[in-house]
Amino acid sequence: MTPQEPANSHSCAGLSIGDARGLRIAVVTSCYHSEICAALQQGARDSFVDAGGQSDSLMHVSSPGAFELVVVSAALVARADIDAVVALGCVLTGETSHDRFICDAVAQGLTDLSLRAVKPVAFGLLTCLTMEQARARAGGNKGNKGSEAMRAAIAAARTIQAIRAGASSSRSCCVGARQ
């Protein structure tokens, strides 16, 4: 917090959990590396509920793999009753460069989708060298990237709602975060 910011403002550096009450968010989870993806999904769910979201306002959808996260997310973004999408998956580096093509395509696809829809599509795709690195980022000593993606989706959804409502405040990216 800088000296010019009010005491109750929020910083993007420590992205706080926003208020998920009333939001309907879809979580799309890849079926590959199910142990990792299940932990990411649980982290996303826990963050949604911790932020005041109701369990029945959280939709869970499976994706065959990471590459398909984009098209499944597109179907969800098109729904008027969905405020944001969280895409979760895990791609591990292999013997070929296949992983780079998948990760680049998913990152670009989710970005394009979010921009076209003007609806948050949070990137929760782990892009790790090893299974140990993935475990560390799916609830291990590096946190839970599913939880981080959910917090980002909530904050972005609330910010977009505030902009659409004509908010004139210059608050940080965490508009609507609990105080």
Structure description:
This protein has about 180 residues and is an alpha/beta fold. The chain has a single domain (about 25-160), classed as Lumazine/riboflavin synthase (Rossmann fold, 3-Layer(aba) Sandwich), CATH 3.40.50. About 40% of the residues lie in helices and about 20% in strands. Strands 2-1-3-4 form a 4-stranded parallel β-sheet, with helices on both faces. The chain has a two-stranded antiparallel sheet with strand order 5-6. A hairpin with a 2-residue loop joins strand 5 and strand 6 (about 145). Helix 1 crosses helix 5 and helix 2 packs parallel to helix 3. The longest helix is centred in the middle third of the chain and has 20 residues, at about 100-115. The chain is globular and about 50 Å long.
What keyword list fits this structure?
179 residues; alpha/beta; Rossmann fold; four-stranded parallel β-sheet; 5 helices; 6 strands; globular; disordered C terminus
Quick structural overview:
The chain is α/β, with parallel strands linked by helices. 41% of the residues lie in helices and 19% in strands.
